[in-house]
Amino acid sequence: MKKRIQEVIVVEGKDDISAVKKAVDAEMIEVNGFAVRRKSTLEKIKNACERTGVIVLTDPDFAGEQIRKTIENYVPDVKHAYISREEGRKGDNIGIENADPESILKALEGAKFKVISERKEFTVTDMIENNLSVGSNSKMNRQNLGGLLKIGYANSKQFLSKLNNFGISRDEFESAIKKLENKN
């Protein structure tokens, strides 16, 4: 069974997410390369760092280092995980997406991640009762609630995972739901 990591892992792209998910169970933020410079992306990372902690795992190349520096300048408390260029090499391509699960796990262990047991504060019932997974407005409701809670938009299944893994409290959730209801 894969280790479940408390911290949110920041990666460059979708292929990196796939590679990391083969090694560990964790929430991730994809920065889309240099789009990391967007204030909204940096704010999402900052929020995750304050809630659960963040581990930055970028490609072992110049661009990866620039992305790390951008994040660290905005959010100095992040942890860093590194793979070697050899571990991330596949032909001429160097990146996290090429690393095997053992190399990724070793890198994350070097960042001293915290293992957690699965948190189940929120359930599918919460999603349904609050119009977050069923109904014509559920997508918009998730979008608005994700903005209020600073966890971003996701489909129903991913949104539930974010609620449970970004450390959202029941009180915080209910307060945000009330704000949404007052807007409508």
TrEMBL record:
SUPFAM superfamilies: Toprim domain. It catalyses: Endonucleolytic cleavage of RNA, removing 21 and 42 nucleotides, respectively, from the 5'- and 3'-termini of a 5S-rRNA precursor. The keyword RNA-binding applies. InterPro entries: RNase_M5, RNase_M5_C, TOPRIM_dom, TOPRIM_RNase_M5-like. Keywords: Cytoplasm, Endonuclease, Hydrolase, Magnesium, Metal-binding, Nuclease, Ribosome biogenesis, RNA-binding, rRNA processing, rRNA-binding. GO terms for molecular function: ribonuclease M5 activity. Signal peptide: none annotated. Its EC number is 3.1.26.8. The keyword Lipid metabolism does not apply. It is an enzyme of class 3 (hydrolase). Residues 6-87 form the Toprim domain. It is found in: Cytoplasm. Required for correct processing of both the 5' and 3' ends of 5S rRNA precursor. Cleaves both sides of a double-stranded region yielding mature 5S rRNA in one step. PANTHER family: RIBONUCLEASE M5. Belongs to the ribonuclease M5 family. NCBIfam families: 5S_RNA_mat_M5 (TIGR00334). This is Ribonuclease M5. The gene is rnmV.
